[in-house]
């Protein structure tokens, strides 16, 4: 039985990660800012009041975990705020960087002592962070923060090679969540594919930017 820590676990893709991992018999540590009824019903370990943009909040989580070994760290927490060229909200752009890019790196660094050789780190990014794939523009804060997150994941994949900890950079697809206006594939289908990618992650394919369906995406 492997132990997975999932951030942003109270709804959407994070909640579905927890659900499917619980169903297949894995140990789940669900991390979020606030509890949801759906998460409570899963009967997994839940750590609330965790803000990945706060050093002190992340430190409190590390203390609570008390050295517990993590087999897989899934950095799933994120936000999207629409920022167009006509409405460049720089505070929003900075906020998205803090949550989407800096936060996952902060948490991963803080939890390095909880990871061992063979543990895995997952960065939940987005195809909207692909420079080659950007043909529509806009969404400045979200796109820019996801590019930064992907770069963090790629750098981690190099820096953690000596520890034999592989890193995957994953795009869930267009998924029916509140973030996307409930259009696209179901969270069940997305997470099924994402878990397949995580299961096949190893030191030979570390640093890969994958779609949940297995397609390798352009940077």
Describe this structure as you would to a colleague.
The chain is an alpha/beta fold and 219 residues long. It is built from 6 helices and 7 strands, in the order βαβαβαβαβαβαβ. It has helices spanning 12-23, 37-42, 55-65, 90-110, 140-159, 187-200; strands at 3-7, 27-31, 45-47, 70-75, 115-124, 167-171, 208-211. It has a 7-stranded parallel sheet, sandwiched between helices. Strand 6, helix 6 and strand 7 (208-211) form a beta-alpha-beta unit. It is globular, with a radius of gyration of 16 Å. The N and C termini lie far apart (34 Å).
What's the structural blueprint in terms of helices and strands?
Layout: E1 3-7, H1 12-23, E2 27-31, H2 37-42, E3 45-47, H3 55-65, E4 70-75, H4 90-110, E5 115-124, H5 140-159, E6 167-171, H6 187-200, E7 208-211
Parallel strand pairs: 1-2, 1-4, 2-3, 4-5, 5-6, 6-7
Helix pairs in contact: 1-6, 4-5
């Amino acid at each position: 039985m492997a132990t997975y820590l999932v951030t942003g676990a109270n709804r959407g893709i994070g909640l579905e990660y927890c659900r499917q991992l619980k169903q297949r018999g894995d140990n789940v540590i669900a991390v979020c800012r606030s509890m949801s009824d759906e998460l409570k019903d899963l009967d997994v370990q839940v750590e609330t009041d965790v803000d990945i943009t706060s050093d002190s909040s992340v430190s409190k989580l590390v203390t609570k975990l008390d050295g517990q070994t993590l087999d897989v760290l899934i950095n799933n927490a994120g936000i999207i705020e629409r920022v167009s060229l006509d409405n460049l909200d720089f505070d929003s752009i900075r906020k998205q960087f803090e949550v989407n890019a800096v936060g996952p790196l902060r948490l991963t660094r803080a939890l390095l002592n909880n990871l061992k050789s063979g543990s895995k780190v997952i960065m939940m990014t987005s195809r909207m962070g692909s420079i080659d794939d950007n043909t529509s523009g806009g969404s400045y804060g979200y796109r820019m923060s996801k590019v930064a997150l992907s770069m963090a994941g790629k750098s981690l994949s190099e820096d953690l090679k000596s520890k034999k900890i592989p890193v995957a950079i994953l795009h869930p697809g267009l998924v029916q969540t509140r973030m996307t206006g409930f259009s696209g594939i179901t969270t069940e289908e997305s997470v099924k594919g994402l878990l397949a990618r995580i299961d096949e992650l190893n030191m030979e394919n570390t640093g890969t930017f994958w779609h949940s369906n297995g397609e390798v995406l352009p940077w």
